[in-house]
Each structure stands twice: as structure tokens, then as C-alpha cells.
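Thought: the user wants the 3D structure for the chain below. I'll pass the sequence to the structure tool as-is, report back what it returns, then summarize two notable features.
Action: structure_tool
Action Input:
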Amino acid sequence: MTDTLITTAFDTETGVARLTFNRPEALNAINVPLAQAFLAAVQEIRSLSGVRCIVLTGAGRAFMAGGDVSSMAGTSEQAGAAISAILDAVNPAILLLRSMDAPVIAAVRGVAAGAGLSLTLMADLVIAEEDAKFLVAYNGIGAVPDCGGSWFLAHKLGAGRAAELMLLGRTLSATEAKDWGIITEFAPASDYDSLLSKMIKKVANGPTRAFGAFRQLTDRANGDQLAAHLEAERSAFLDMTRTTDFAEGVSAFLAKRSAQFQGR
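Observation:
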């Protein structure tokens, strides 16, 4: 399948399904059309027989640079409507991916920020280029993580490191991200494709049903509340759209200046 915003491919011999965010001119920043295309692509993959590995990646220079902040400008009502429309598609896509047996590999080049970091953390394995960067980014606009970001940050990194990323706005290199447990492996650009292919082959040749059961068990060990948490994130994000800091954060981001937050 080819879409202007998403491309998917499925190799029936290997069982590998690939989904590529295809908005490179915006560093694959997610807006409502991209979110809806993402859900449709995941639903298509869910309907296929014989899927043994799912690879998420981004076209161009970035995996995903977060949400499209320009769509969040305007009144709090307008921002809230845009955010809810994005999450109406992304949240079900995340739950579908977590419900499948096939492991998910995030293949990260460039930046994974905001929603891009959330989707990276959602994956079972992450293979990154050596110069990849990872950051929460929501703090820059006076918002909270969505797309499962706060769930996966807490469960994969722990509350302390999650707070360090959010409160201090740290950007992690691939080396740091591996040390923190965000990514599985990384390699220089010259070796990246080879490493990624090796990992995909190993996963796709594994016991897919057992992998799926293992993911369900680990999710349950973490409280089995992902669906409810996604909606709690939505509610918290919508609350933030009604703050002075959010309006300032969006304005500053679009003007490419430092935000002057007032704590209200």
C-alpha cells in the first residue's frame, strides 16, 4: 500500500511488514491526516496473515519530530480539537500494535521527539543510527506526553529518569539512549542497514506466538492499564491547552524563540 502520508510493504516470504511515516518535509511531524493514515495502515497490517515482525520508520531525515505544533495554534478549543482528533487515531493504533503477536521494531534515523519518542518507546526493540537524538519535547510547549509516552517512560526508564527528561528537557544521544534502555542497538550510517536487517531477520524467524504472549504478560505485569492511561494522557493534555504556559509554548515554538513560562 502507498499513501501520500504513510507507505506500507509486506513481504509474504519473510513475514516482515514495514510502515513508514512519509511526511519528510515536516520531519514526519504528526497531524490529523498522518494520524488517521497511521491507524489505517496498522489496521491493514492487522488484517494480514503471516505477519512475524513489524518495522516502523520515518522517511527522510527524522523518525518523527513530534506533533505538528502549528495544528495546535489558536484558541484552547481549537488546540484541543486537533489534539483529540490525532489521539482518536493514534491511541487505537498503539493498542492494536500492542495486541498483535508480531514484535515491533522502531528503526530510528535522525530525531525521535515528542510523539516520535512515545512511538519509539512503544516498540519492542529500537535500532538507531549513531547520530540519532531522543527527547521528550512536550516540556517545550507546556504540555504533557501523549501517545503512551508517560506510560512507557515510567515503565521502561523509571520515574527518576522520566522526570529528568521532562523537567530538564534533556536530549539524549544514541549512546545515552542505549545506556538508559530506550534503544536496543545503534550503528554508524555505514553499518546501520546491515544491523537493522540482522535484527529484523532474527525477530521474524523467532516464535511469533510466544513473542506475542510474552508482550501481553509484560504489559499485564505493568498494571494492564495502557488503554485507560492513554485516555488519562488525553485528558491531561487537554487540560494543558487551557493554560497560559501552553499558549506561550506554542507561540514561542512557531516563532522559533525561547518560551517564557509563568507557571500558570
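Final Answer: Structure generated. The chain has ten helices and nine strands. The domain at 6-189+235-239 is CATH 3.90.226.10 (2-enoyl-CoA Hydratase; Chain A, domain 1).
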